[in-house]
UniProtKB/TrEMBL annotation:
One of its GO terms (molecular function) is N-acyltransferase activity. InterPro entries: Apolipo_AcylTrfase, C-N_Hydrolase, C-N_Hydrolase_sf, LNT_N. It comes from Glacieibacterium arshaanense. It is found in: Cell membrane. This is Apolipoprotein N-acyltransferase.
Length: 505
Protein backbone atom coordinates (compact mmCIF):
# COMPACT_ATOMS: atom_id res chain seq x y z
CA UNK A 1 0.00 0.00 0.00
CA UNK A 2 3.02 2.28 0.48
CA UNK A 3 3.22 3.11 -3.22
CA UNK A 4 -0.52 3.35 -3.84
CA UNK A 5 -0.21 7.12 -4.20
CA UNK A 6 1.95 6.46 -7.27
CA UNK A 7 0.11 3.51 -8.80
CA UNK A 8 -3.41 4.92 -8.40
CA UNK A 9 -2.93 8.28 -10.17
CA UNK A 10 -0.80 6.56 -12.83
CA UNK A 11 -3.70 4.19 -13.53
CA UNK A 12 -6.25 7.01 -13.44
CA UNK A 13 -4.23 9.00 -15.98
CA UNK A 14 -4.16 6.06 -18.37
CA UNK A 15 -7.90 5.49 -17.92
CA UNK A 16 -8.56 9.16 -18.65
CA UNK A 17 -6.64 8.83 -21.95
CA UNK A 18 -9.06 6.11 -23.07
CA UNK A 19 -11.55 8.90 -23.74
CA UNK A 20 -9.56 9.88 -26.82
CA UNK A 21 -10.25 8.32 -30.18
CA UNK A 22 -9.91 5.53 -31.30
CA UNK A 23 -11.24 4.27 -27.94
CA UNK A 24 -13.68 7.15 -27.23
CA UNK A 25 -14.51 5.81 -23.75
CA UNK A 26 -15.30 9.29 -22.44
CA UNK A 27 -17.22 8.11 -19.33
CA UNK A 28 -13.95 6.58 -18.10
CA UNK A 29 -12.30 9.97 -18.51
CA UNK A 30 -14.89 11.61 -16.29
CA UNK A 31 -14.69 8.92 -13.60
CA UNK A 32 -10.88 8.97 -13.59
CA UNK A 33 -10.86 12.76 -13.43
CA UNK A 34 -13.29 12.78 -10.50
CA UNK A 35 -11.15 10.24 -8.66
CA UNK A 36 -8.05 12.40 -9.16
CA UNK A 37 -9.88 15.37 -7.65
CA UNK A 38 -10.69 13.28 -4.57
CA UNK A 39 -7.02 12.36 -4.24
CA UNK A 40 -5.82 15.95 -4.58
CA UNK A 41 -8.24 17.13 -1.92
CA UNK A 42 -7.10 14.32 0.38
CA UNK A 43 -3.39 15.07 -0.13
CA UNK A 44 -1.71 15.97 3.17
CA UNK A 45 0.79 18.35 1.55
CA UNK A 46 1.24 20.41 -1.59
CA UNK A 47 4.20 18.23 -2.48
CA UNK A 48 1.97 15.15 -2.42
CA UNK A 49 -0.60 16.95 -4.59
CA UNK A 50 2.16 17.82 -7.09
CA UNK A 51 3.21 14.16 -7.18
CA UNK A 52 -0.37 13.01 -7.72
CA UNK A 53 -0.72 15.36 -10.68
CA UNK A 54 2.62 14.29 -12.15
CA UNK A 55 1.89 10.56 -11.97
CA UNK A 56 -1.57 11.16 -13.42
CA UNK A 57 0.00 13.13 -16.26
CA UNK A 58 2.61 10.45 -16.88
CA UNK A 59 -0.01 7.71 -17.29
CA UNK A 60 -2.22 10.01 -19.33
CA UNK A 61 0.44 11.12 -21.78
CA UNK A 62 2.23 7.77 -22.16
CA UNK A 63 -1.00 6.25 -23.45
CA UNK A 64 -2.12 9.37 -25.32
CA UNK A 65 1.27 9.84 -27.02
CA UNK A 66 2.05 6.16 -27.65
CA UNK A 67 2.27 6.79 -31.41
CA UNK A 68 5.54 8.69 -30.82
CA UNK A 69 7.24 5.30 -30.37
CA UNK A 70 6.44 4.46 -34.00
CA UNK A 71 7.43 7.94 -35.18
CA UNK A 72 10.88 7.78 -33.59
CA UNK A 73 11.42 4.27 -34.95
CA UNK A 74 10.86 5.52 -38.51
CA UNK A 75 12.54 8.89 -38.10
CA UNK A 76 15.80 7.76 -36.54
CA UNK A 77 15.82 4.02 -37.29
CA UNK A 78 15.69 3.39 -33.56
CA UNK A 79 14.86 0.01 -32.06
CA UNK A 80 11.30 -0.07 -30.63
CA UNK A 81 12.56 -0.01 -27.04
CA UNK A 82 14.21 3.37 -27.60
CA UNK A 83 11.05 4.62 -29.27
CA UNK A 84 9.11 3.83 -26.10
CA UNK A 85 11.82 5.50 -24.05
CA UNK A 86 11.13 8.63 -26.09
CA UNK A 87 7.42 8.33 -25.29
CA UNK A 88 8.14 8.15 -21.56
CA UNK A 89 10.56 11.06 -21.80
CA UNK A 90 8.06 13.31 -23.58
CA UNK A 91 5.27 12.23 -21.22
CA UNK A 92 7.43 12.90 -18.15
CA UNK A 93 8.07 16.45 -19.35
CA UNK A 94 4.43 17.10 -20.27
CA UNK A 95 3.31 15.67 -16.91
CA UNK A 96 4.74 18.75 -15.21
CA UNK A 97 1.70 20.68 -16.43
CA UNK A 98 -0.96 18.63 -14.58
CA UNK A 99 1.43 18.47 -11.63
CA UNK A 100 1.48 22.26 -11.43
CA UNK A 101 -2.31 22.33 -11.78
CA UNK A 102 -2.70 19.89 -8.89
CA UNK A 103 -0.26 21.79 -6.67
CA UNK A 104 -1.91 25.12 -7.45
CA UNK A 105 -5.40 23.77 -6.79
CA UNK A 106 -4.31 22.32 -3.45
CA UNK A 107 -2.66 25.58 -2.41
CA UNK A 108 -5.39 27.95 -3.60
CA UNK A 109 -8.44 25.87 -2.78
CA UNK A 110 -10.20 25.11 0.46
CA UNK A 111 -12.22 21.93 0.30
CA UNK A 112 -13.17 19.62 -2.53
CA UNK A 113 -15.47 22.01 -4.39
CA UNK A 114 -13.00 24.87 -4.39
CA UNK A 115 -10.00 22.74 -5.26
CA UNK A 116 -11.88 21.01 -8.08
CA UNK A 117 -12.82 24.30 -9.72
CA UNK A 118 -9.33 25.69 -9.22
CA UNK A 119 -7.97 22.57 -10.88
CA UNK A 120 -10.30 23.09 -13.87
CA UNK A 121 -9.11 26.68 -14.29
CA UNK A 122 -5.45 25.80 -13.82
CA UNK A 123 -5.66 22.84 -16.20
CA UNK A 124 -6.86 25.24 -18.88
CA UNK A 125 -3.94 27.55 -18.16
CA UNK A 126 -1.34 24.79 -18.24
CA UNK A 127 -2.88 23.24 -21.36
CA UNK A 128 -2.44 26.61 -23.05
CA UNK A 129 1.17 26.69 -21.84
CA UNK A 130 1.71 23.16 -23.16
CA UNK A 131 0.75 24.41 -26.61
CA UNK A 132 3.13 27.38 -26.51
CA UNK A 133 6.25 26.77 -24.43
CA UNK A 134 9.35 25.20 -26.03
CA UNK A 135 7.77 25.28 -29.51
CA UNK A 136 4.54 23.87 -28.09
CA UNK A 137 2.98 20.43 -28.21
CA UNK A 138 -0.81 20.79 -28.07
CA UNK A 139 -1.56 17.17 -28.98
CA UNK A 140 -4.71 15.69 -27.42
CA UNK A 141 -6.36 18.50 -25.49
CA UNK A 142 -8.53 16.80 -22.91
CA UNK A 143 -11.60 18.48 -24.40
CA UNK A 144 -11.28 16.23 -27.46
CA UNK A 145 -13.07 13.51 -25.47
CA UNK A 146 -16.33 15.44 -26.05
CA UNK A 147 -16.24 14.92 -29.84
CA UNK A 148 -18.65 11.93 -29.77
CA UNK A 149 -21.17 14.27 -28.07
CA UNK A 150 -21.94 16.96 -30.65
CA UNK A 151 -23.82 19.37 -28.32
CA UNK A 152 -20.85 19.53 -25.95
CA UNK A 153 -18.14 19.52 -28.62
CA UNK A 154 -20.00 22.40 -30.26
CA UNK A 155 -19.10 24.60 -27.30
CA UNK A 156 -15.62 24.86 -28.83
CA UNK A 157 -17.14 27.51 -31.09
CA UNK A 158 -17.43 29.66 -27.95
CA UNK A 159 -14.50 28.74 -25.71
CA UNK A 160 -12.20 26.66 -27.92
CA UNK A 161 -10.78 23.21 -27.30
CA UNK A 162 -9.06 24.36 -24.11
CA UNK A 163 -12.41 25.55 -22.80
CA UNK A 164 -13.79 22.08 -23.55
CA UNK A 165 -10.99 20.69 -21.39
CA UNK A 166 -12.11 22.92 -18.55
CA UNK A 167 -15.64 21.59 -19.02
CA UNK A 168 -14.34 18.04 -18.53
CA UNK A 169 -13.03 19.01 -15.11
CA UNK A 170 -16.19 20.91 -14.20
CA UNK A 171 -18.28 17.81 -14.90
CA UNK A 172 -15.73 15.68 -13.05
CA UNK A 173 -15.96 18.02 -10.06
CA UNK A 174 -19.74 17.60 -10.02
CA UNK A 175 -19.29 13.83 -10.02
CA UNK A 176 -16.79 14.10 -7.19
CA UNK A 177 -19.20 16.21 -5.14
CA UNK A 178 -22.18 13.98 -5.82
CA UNK A 179 -20.67 11.24 -3.66
CA UNK A 180 -20.90 13.71 -0.78
CA UNK A 181 -24.59 13.57 0.11
CA UNK A 182 -23.98 16.17 2.79
CA UNK A 183 -22.72 18.58 0.16
CA UNK A 184 -25.38 18.36 -2.52
CA UNK A 185 -26.42 21.92 -1.66
CA UNK A 186 -22.95 23.22 -2.51
CA UNK A 187 -23.23 26.06 -5.09
CA UNK A 188 -20.43 24.38 -7.04
CA UNK A 189 -22.65 21.38 -7.75
CA UNK A 190 -24.86 23.64 -9.88
CA UNK A 191 -22.03 24.76 -12.17
CA UNK A 192 -21.79 21.62 -14.29
CA UNK A 193 -25.55 21.22 -14.93
CA UNK A 194 -25.87 24.89 -15.87
CA UNK A 195 -22.93 24.71 -18.27
CA UNK A 196 -24.22 21.50 -19.83
CA UNK A 197 -27.70 22.99 -20.26
CA UNK A 198 -26.18 26.09 -21.88
CA UNK A 199 -24.11 23.97 -24.27
CA UNK A 200 -27.07 21.81 -25.30
CA UNK A 201 -29.33 24.85 -25.69
CA UNK A 202 -26.76 26.57 -27.86
CA UNK A 203 -26.44 23.46 -30.00
CA UNK A 204 -30.23 23.11 -30.36
CA UNK A 205 -30.68 26.76 -31.36
CA UNK A 206 -27.82 26.85 -33.85
CA UNK A 207 -28.42 28.03 -37.39
CA UNK A 208 -28.52 25.34 -40.09
CA UNK A 209 -25.41 24.61 -42.10
CA UNK A 210 -25.33 26.46 -45.42
CA UNK A 211 -25.61 24.45 -48.62
CA UNK A 212 -22.26 23.15 -49.87
CA UNK A 213 -20.50 24.72 -52.82
CA UNK A 214 -20.55 23.11 -56.26
CA UNK A 215 -16.76 22.69 -56.35
CA UNK A 216 -15.81 19.04 -56.83
CA UNK A 217 -12.69 17.90 -54.99
CA UNK A 218 -10.87 14.57 -55.06
CA UNK A 219 -8.55 13.49 -52.25
CA UNK A 220 -5.85 11.01 -53.26
CA UNK A 221 -4.82 8.44 -50.64
CA UNK A 222 -2.31 5.98 -52.19
CA UNK A 223 -1.53 4.08 -48.94
CA UNK A 224 2.22 4.51 -49.40
CA UNK A 225 3.71 3.69 -46.01
CA UNK A 226 6.65 5.43 -44.42
CA UNK A 227 8.93 2.50 -45.20
CA UNK A 228 8.08 2.77 -48.92
CA UNK A 229 8.06 6.54 -49.19
CA UNK A 230 11.68 6.94 -50.30
CA UNK A 231 12.26 3.45 -51.72
CA UNK A 232 11.14 4.13 -55.30
CA UNK A 233 10.04 7.73 -55.99
CA UNK A 234 9.26 6.93 -59.64
CA UNK A 235 6.89 4.12 -58.72
CA UNK A 236 5.21 6.29 -56.09
CA UNK A 237 4.74 9.10 -58.60
CA UNK A 238 3.24 6.66 -61.09
CA UNK A 239 0.72 5.53 -58.46
CA UNK A 240 -0.25 9.11 -57.69
CA UNK A 241 -0.57 9.82 -61.42
CA UNK A 242 -2.85 6.83 -62.02
CA UNK A 243 -5.18 7.78 -59.18
CA UNK A 244 -5.15 11.43 -60.27
CA UNK A 245 -6.02 10.62 -63.87
CA UNK A 246 -8.97 8.56 -62.63
CA UNK A 247 -10.07 11.40 -60.36
CA UNK A 248 -10.07 14.03 -63.09
CA UNK A 249 -11.82 11.62 -65.45
CA UNK A 250 -14.55 11.18 -62.84
CA UNK A 251 -15.26 14.92 -62.88
CA UNK A 252 -13.05 16.36 -60.16
CA UNK A 253 -12.12 20.01 -60.64
CA UNK A 254 -9.37 19.97 -58.03
CA UNK A 255 -7.26 16.97 -57.01
CA UNK A 256 -5.30 17.07 -53.77
CA UNK A 257 -2.28 15.01 -52.72
CA UNK A 258 -0.90 14.77 -49.17
CA UNK A 259 2.17 16.24 -47.52
CA UNK A 260 5.47 15.33 -49.16
CA UNK A 261 3.75 13.40 -51.95
CA UNK A 262 6.17 14.58 -54.65
CA UNK A 263 9.71 13.39 -53.98
CA UNK A 264 11.10 15.52 -56.81
CA UNK A 265 11.89 19.25 -56.70
CA UNK A 266 9.13 20.77 -58.79
CA UNK A 267 10.77 24.13 -59.40
CA UNK A 268 14.08 22.58 -60.50
CA UNK A 269 12.86 19.62 -62.56
CA UNK A 270 11.09 20.76 -65.76
CA UNK A 271 10.38 17.18 -66.85
CA UNK A 272 8.46 16.37 -63.67
CA UNK A 273 6.62 19.67 -63.87
CA UNK A 274 5.54 18.94 -67.44
CA UNK A 275 4.54 15.39 -66.44
CA UNK A 276 2.27 16.71 -63.70
CA UNK A 277 0.77 19.40 -65.92
CA UNK A 278 -0.02 16.79 -68.55
CA UNK A 279 -2.49 15.00 -66.28
CA UNK A 280 -4.43 18.16 -65.38
CA UNK A 281 -7.41 19.06 -67.59
CA UNK A 282 -8.25 22.58 -68.70
CA UNK A 283 -9.30 24.75 -65.73
CA UNK A 284 -8.27 21.96 -63.38
CA UNK A 285 -5.93 22.32 -60.45
CA UNK A 286 -3.55 19.96 -58.67
CA UNK A 287 -2.59 20.69 -55.05
CA UNK A 288 0.24 18.66 -53.57
CA UNK A 289 2.92 18.62 -50.93
CA UNK A 290 6.60 18.77 -51.85
CA UNK A 291 9.86 20.40 -50.76
CA UNK A 292 11.07 23.81 -51.85
CA UNK A 293 14.87 24.14 -51.77
CA UNK A 294 16.45 27.41 -50.65
CA UNK A 295 19.80 28.24 -52.29
CA UNK A 296 22.41 30.91 -51.64
CA UNK A 297 23.85 33.29 -54.23
CA UNK A 298 26.22 30.55 -55.45
CA UNK A 299 23.39 28.08 -55.99
CA UNK A 300 24.31 25.93 -52.99
CA UNK A 301 21.36 24.41 -51.14
CA UNK A 302 21.22 25.91 -47.65
CA UNK A 303 17.75 24.95 -46.46
CA UNK A 304 14.40 23.50 -47.41
CA UNK A 305 10.75 24.28 -46.88
CA UNK A 306 7.88 21.85 -46.37
CA UNK A 307 5.43 23.26 -48.88
CA UNK A 308 2.11 22.94 -50.65
CA UNK A 309 2.01 23.84 -54.35
CA UNK A 310 -0.91 24.66 -56.65
CA UNK A 311 -0.30 23.72 -60.32
CA UNK A 312 -2.49 24.12 -63.41
CA UNK A 313 -2.51 22.40 -66.82
CA UNK A 314 0.07 24.84 -68.21
CA UNK A 315 2.54 24.05 -65.46
CA UNK A 316 1.97 27.41 -63.82
CA UNK A 317 2.44 27.51 -60.06
CA UNK A 318 -0.44 29.62 -58.76
CA UNK A 319 0.53 29.57 -55.13
CA UNK A 320 2.78 28.06 -52.51
CA UNK A 321 2.37 27.73 -48.77
CA UNK A 322 5.41 27.02 -46.58
CA UNK A 323 4.91 25.25 -43.27
CA UNK A 324 5.57 27.64 -40.39
CA UNK A 325 5.34 25.49 -37.26
CA UNK A 326 8.12 22.95 -37.67
CA UNK A 327 8.72 19.81 -35.63
CA UNK A 328 11.87 19.96 -33.47
CA UNK A 329 14.05 16.87 -34.02
CA UNK A 330 11.79 16.01 -36.95
CA UNK A 331 12.19 18.83 -39.47
CA UNK A 332 15.08 20.71 -37.92
CA UNK A 333 17.75 20.09 -35.32
CA UNK A 334 17.87 22.77 -32.62
CA UNK A 335 21.42 23.92 -31.86
CA UNK A 336 22.78 21.79 -34.70
CA UNK A 337 26.50 22.60 -34.06
CA UNK A 338 26.09 21.28 -30.51
CA UNK A 339 23.75 18.40 -31.26
CA UNK A 340 25.60 16.89 -34.22
CA UNK A 341 28.69 15.78 -32.22
CA UNK A 342 26.29 14.05 -29.81
CA UNK A 343 24.90 11.91 -32.64
CA UNK A 344 21.48 13.57 -32.55
CA UNK A 345 21.66 14.65 -36.20
CA UNK A 346 20.37 11.19 -37.11
CA UNK A 347 16.98 12.26 -35.75
CA UNK A 348 16.54 14.63 -38.69
CA UNK A 349 16.51 13.18 -42.22
CA UNK A 350 19.03 14.72 -44.60
CA UNK A 351 21.67 17.35 -44.01
CA UNK A 352 19.42 20.36 -44.54
CA UNK A 353 17.15 21.80 -41.89
CA UNK A 354 13.71 22.94 -42.91
CA UNK A 355 13.07 26.66 -42.67
CA UNK A 356 9.95 28.22 -41.21
CA UNK A 357 7.36 29.83 -43.42
CA UNK A 358 5.79 33.22 -42.61
CA UNK A 359 2.83 31.77 -40.71
CA UNK A 360 -0.89 31.40 -41.45
CA UNK A 361 -1.83 32.86 -44.80
CA UNK A 362 -4.74 32.70 -47.19
CA UNK A 363 -4.18 31.47 -50.74
CA UNK A 364 -6.35 32.86 -53.52
CA UNK A 365 -6.35 30.23 -56.27
CA UNK A 366 -8.32 30.13 -59.54
CA UNK A 367 -11.63 28.33 -59.23
CA UNK A 368 -11.47 28.02 -55.44
CA UNK A 369 -12.73 30.11 -52.52
CA UNK A 370 -9.98 31.67 -50.37
CA UNK A 371 -8.11 28.83 -48.69
CA UNK A 372 -6.12 28.50 -45.49
CA UNK A 373 -3.46 25.78 -45.37
CA UNK A 374 -2.04 23.77 -42.48
CA UNK A 375 0.65 21.14 -42.98
CA UNK A 376 0.85 18.18 -40.60
CA UNK A 377 0.63 19.05 -36.93
CA UNK A 378 0.06 22.77 -37.54
CA UNK A 379 -3.64 21.89 -37.37
CA UNK A 380 -3.44 20.94 -33.67
CA UNK A 381 -2.86 24.51 -32.45
CA UNK A 382 -6.08 26.41 -31.68
CA UNK A 383 -6.35 30.08 -32.68
CA UNK A 384 -3.24 29.73 -34.87
CA UNK A 385 -4.59 28.25 -38.09
CA UNK A 386 -5.88 31.21 -40.13
CA UNK A 387 -4.84 34.70 -41.16
CA UNK A 388 -7.35 36.81 -39.28
CA UNK A 389 -6.79 39.77 -41.62
CA UNK A 390 -7.83 37.70 -44.64
CA UNK A 391 -10.27 35.08 -43.38
CA UNK A 392 -10.41 32.02 -45.66
CA UNK A 393 -13.59 30.18 -46.61
CA UNK A 394 -12.10 26.76 -45.84
CA UNK A 395 -9.04 25.03 -44.46
CA UNK A 396 -6.91 22.44 -46.23
CA UNK A 397 -4.65 20.33 -44.06
CA UNK A 398 -2.25 17.91 -45.70
CA UNK A 399 -0.23 15.53 -43.59
CA UNK A 400 1.90 12.41 -43.64
CA UNK A 401 0.49 10.23 -40.86
CA UNK A 402 2.19 7.08 -42.11
CA UNK A 403 4.66 7.24 -39.22
CA UNK A 404 2.04 7.99 -36.52
CA UNK A 405 1.29 4.38 -35.58
CA UNK A 406 -2.26 3.16 -35.03
CA UNK A 407 -3.65 5.74 -32.59
CA UNK A 408 -1.99 8.87 -33.97
CA UNK A 409 -3.98 9.27 -37.22
CA UNK A 410 -7.48 9.16 -35.66
CA UNK A 411 -6.35 11.56 -32.94
CA UNK A 412 -4.89 13.89 -35.57
CA UNK A 413 -8.16 13.75 -37.50
CA UNK A 414 -10.10 14.52 -34.31
CA UNK A 415 -8.07 17.65 -33.72
CA UNK A 416 -8.81 18.83 -37.27
CA UNK A 417 -12.50 18.51 -36.36
CA UNK A 418 -11.94 20.75 -33.34
CA UNK A 419 -10.39 23.45 -35.54
CA UNK A 420 -13.45 23.30 -37.82
CA UNK A 421 -15.78 23.87 -34.85
CA UNK A 422 -13.65 26.66 -33.39
CA UNK A 423 -13.32 28.60 -36.63
CA UNK A 424 -16.68 27.79 -38.23
CA UNK A 425 -14.80 26.63 -41.32
CA UNK A 426 -14.90 23.35 -43.24
CA UNK A 427 -11.68 21.36 -43.19
CA UNK A 428 -10.45 19.07 -45.96
CA UNK A 429 -7.78 16.63 -44.83
CA UNK A 430 -5.49 14.52 -47.05
CA UNK A 431 -2.89 11.97 -45.95
CA UNK A 432 -1.10 9.11 -47.78
CA UNK A 433 -2.29 6.34 -45.45
CA UNK A 434 -5.39 7.85 -43.86
CA UNK A 435 -7.43 9.30 -42.42
CA UNK A 436 -8.44 11.58 -45.33
CA UNK A 437 -11.83 13.24 -45.27
CA UNK A 438 -14.27 16.11 -45.53
CA UNK A 439 -15.24 17.92 -42.31
CA UNK A 440 -18.05 20.47 -42.27
CA UNK A 441 -17.97 23.79 -40.43
CA UNK A 442 -19.43 22.20 -37.28
CA UNK A 443 -16.91 19.38 -37.12
CA UNK A 444 -19.19 16.78 -38.67
CA UNK A 445 -17.56 14.22 -40.97
CA UNK A 446 -19.39 13.94 -44.28
CA UNK A 447 -17.00 11.40 -45.84
CA UNK A 448 -13.65 9.82 -45.06
CA UNK A 449 -11.22 7.14 -46.18
CA UNK A 450 -10.08 4.85 -43.35
CA UNK A 451 -6.48 4.07 -42.53
CA UNK A 452 -4.38 1.83 -44.77
CA UNK A 453 -6.82 1.93 -47.69
CA UNK A 454 -5.97 2.93 -51.27
CA UNK A 455 -8.56 5.20 -52.79
CA UNK A 456 -9.77 8.52 -54.11
CA UNK A 457 -12.39 10.30 -52.04
CA UNK A 458 -14.72 12.49 -54.08
CA UNK A 459 -16.81 15.23 -52.52
CA UNK A 460 -18.02 18.79 -52.84
CA UNK A 461 -16.41 21.53 -50.81
CA UNK A 462 -18.59 22.43 -47.79
CA UNK A 463 -19.50 26.06 -47.13
CA UNK A 464 -18.30 28.12 -44.16
CA UNK A 465 -20.31 29.55 -41.28
CA UNK A 466 -20.02 33.16 -40.10
CA UNK A 467 -17.07 33.67 -37.75
CA UNK A 468 -17.69 32.02 -34.40
CA UNK A 469 -17.17 33.72 -31.06
CA UNK A 470 -13.85 31.90 -30.75
CA UNK A 471 -12.88 32.86 -34.32
CA UNK A 472 -13.44 36.52 -33.44
CA UNK A 473 -11.78 36.64 -30.04
CA UNK A 474 -9.55 33.56 -29.92
CA UNK A 475 -8.26 32.57 -26.51
CA UNK A 476 -9.87 35.68 -25.05
CA UNK A 477 -13.07 33.66 -24.67
CA UNK A 478 -11.10 30.83 -23.09
CA UNK A 479 -9.61 33.30 -20.64
CA UNK A 480 -13.04 34.60 -19.66
CA UNK A 481 -14.23 31.05 -19.02
CA UNK A 482 -11.13 30.30 -16.96
CA UNK A 483 -11.61 33.46 -14.89
CA UNK A 484 -15.24 32.49 -14.32
CA UNK A 485 -14.14 29.13 -12.95
CA UNK A 486 -11.52 30.80 -10.77
CA UNK A 487 -14.18 33.15 -9.40
CA UNK A 488 -16.47 30.23 -8.64
CA UNK A 489 -13.55 28.47 -6.96
CA UNK A 490 -13.07 31.48 -4.69
CA UNK A 491 -16.79 31.51 -3.92
CA UNK A 492 -16.75 27.79 -3.15
CA UNK A 493 -13.73 28.33 -0.90
CA UNK A 494 -15.76 30.69 1.26
CA UNK A 495 -18.14 27.81 1.86
CA UNK A 496 -15.15 25.50 2.32
CA UNK A 497 -13.56 24.09 5.37
CA UNK A 498 -15.60 20.94 4.98
CA UNK A 499 -14.02 17.71 6.03
CA UNK A 500 -11.64 16.11 3.56
CA UNK A 501 -12.37 12.76 2.07
CA UNK A 502 -10.86 10.11 4.29
CA UNK A 503 -8.48 8.59 1.74
CA UNK A 504 -5.18 7.31 3.03
CA UNK A 505 -2.55 7.03 0.27
Amino acid sequence: MKHLWIALPLLLGALAALGFTPFALWPLTLVAAAALLWLIDAAPTGRRAFGLGWWFGLGHFVLGFNWIATAFTYQAAMPPALGWLAVVGVAALMALYPALSAWGAWRLGRGLASRSLWFAALWMLTEWLRGHLLSGFAWNPLGAVWLPLSPLAGAAAWVGAIGLSGLVWVVASALALLVRSDRLRQPATLVAPLLLIAAVAGWALRAPLPAPTSIRLALVQPNIGQGSRYADPNANLAQYAALTTQAFAAGAQVVIWPEGALQFTLEEDPAVRAYLAGMIPQSGLLLFGSDHIERDADGVAVGARNSLFALDERGTIHGRYDKAHLVPLGEYLPFRPLMTPLGLARLVPGELDFWEGPGPQTLHLPGLPPMGVQICYEIIFPARVIDGRDRPAWLLTISNDAWFGGDGPPQHFAQARLRAIEEGLPVVRVTPTGISGFIDARGGVSAKLPQLQVGVLHGVLPSPLPPTLFARFGHGTTLVFGLLLAGLALLAGRHGGQRKLDIQI
